[in-house]
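Sanity check. The docking grid for S-adenosylmethionine depends on where the pocket ends up, so I'm generating a full predicted complex first rather than guessing from homology. Inputs follow.
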Amino acid sequence: MSSTSGTLPPTFDRADGHAVFPETDHDETARLNFLTGLNVHIGKELSPGVRTAYEQRVHPAFEKSQGNSPETATDIRKAMLHDPYYQQWAALRRSTQEASQQVSREVALRRVDDLNAQAATLNEGRNTLSLDPDLKIPSYQAAVDNHLMPGSYYTEAAPDDVTAAATYEVSLFPIGGASFGAKGDGGGRAMANFVRDRFPDLNPKRIVDMGGGIGGNTLPLAAAFPDAEIIVVDTAAPMLRYGHARAQSMGYGNVSFVQGLAETVDLEPGSIDLIVSVMFWHETSTKTVGEGLAHMHSLLAPGGVMVHLEQPNFDADTPTFERFMRDWDAYYNNEPFWPKLHTLDMFKAMEDAGFKKDDLFDAGTEADIEPGRFQPWSTIVTRHRHETKDLGDTGRELSALGGYKGERWWLFGAVR
Ligand SMILES: C[S@@+](CC[C@H](N)C(=O)[O-])C[C@H]1O[C@@H](n2cnc3c(N)ncnc32)[C@H](O)[C@@H]1O
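Predicted complex below; grid placement will be based on this.
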């Protein structure tokens, strides 16, 4: 049992609302609370049992029949598929994720007319929302509904629809085990802290958040640099309409939302001082990583900084069992690019994109939870913490340049 056993995560009614956030009724709130708690329970209490099943049952049986230990994550997966504990854990985890997404979608769709009208009112007459109806959704994005979100980010249930984005924001709460904070911006706050701490002299005039979605993790940067022009780039119109309305209702006039691809978006070369992304690359493709980094290199001004927040990649020391656990989402949570990204050498990819080896960096971070809103421990009461960290393994460095120490998220980037 973990040290936070019995600790319940924050409840959904304590999430911060805004003008386009769906107001849930009693039953919907109860469902979301149940799923948030169940998700945390799976992560904290049931997930360690998968390791026990492997070490005490599956690994010895494999060795006995094969004469050697499993060599790859695929070997472990194939062997674990027959284990009853793994089967139950995986089925429960999949069902919890599916239910969290379905409930969130239902919450949004029930209010489709009100949400769309509210967003339209907030967006009307502004020149800070720029949509491109001709933009073709990339095939890697259209191929699956990432993390089982029905209709993904871009599907429109009605003209000028925002419900995909409302679904996304509501679902972040249960699927993250409430660990992203009351505004869901724990990653963005961590990013803003990192930029200020690591680059104290950087005073960015133009900032771009690639794959910024609803801008939830962009707004902490907008708050940190109130004089900067901030641009959220995303492929999905519902995310941008909703994000723009959300930012307007929260008083952020310095954030524009632009529909485009991170790898081609039409911005003036050399004009951007800071490019960030938060949990973006894992839903793209190998080709997009190469083209996207090269485009970012061309957009950055001399001395400009690029920082990406992602799931940590594997390194030579990542145990095979941990690889197996962390690639689970590819098979059961519609995250097909995850295993490939985990093994990509992002330092080489940044060099290939034009950045100089000496200008690359990395670091690790936890979610930064707004003080006084959620309990400080809420960041550790999460399924993901256990997936991304091999418990008991401290102080491992990801690379020779490394600043990563096994935290929840990996920050990597470069100075131009
Ligand atoms: C996991 S979401 C993260 C959104 C946001 N950064 C956040 O932290 O909430 C990934 C986002 O990337 C967008 N996306 C995927 N491929 C893209 C691309 N090539 N260019 C721009 N956006 C893209 C998706 O539409 C989605 O909104």
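Relevant for the grid: Residues 138, 141, 153, 187, 210-213, 216-217, 233-236, 239, 261-263, 278-280, 283-284, 288 surround S-adenosylmethionine (CB under 6 Å).
Also worth noting: The domain at 12-416 is CATH 3.40.50.150 (Rossmann fold).
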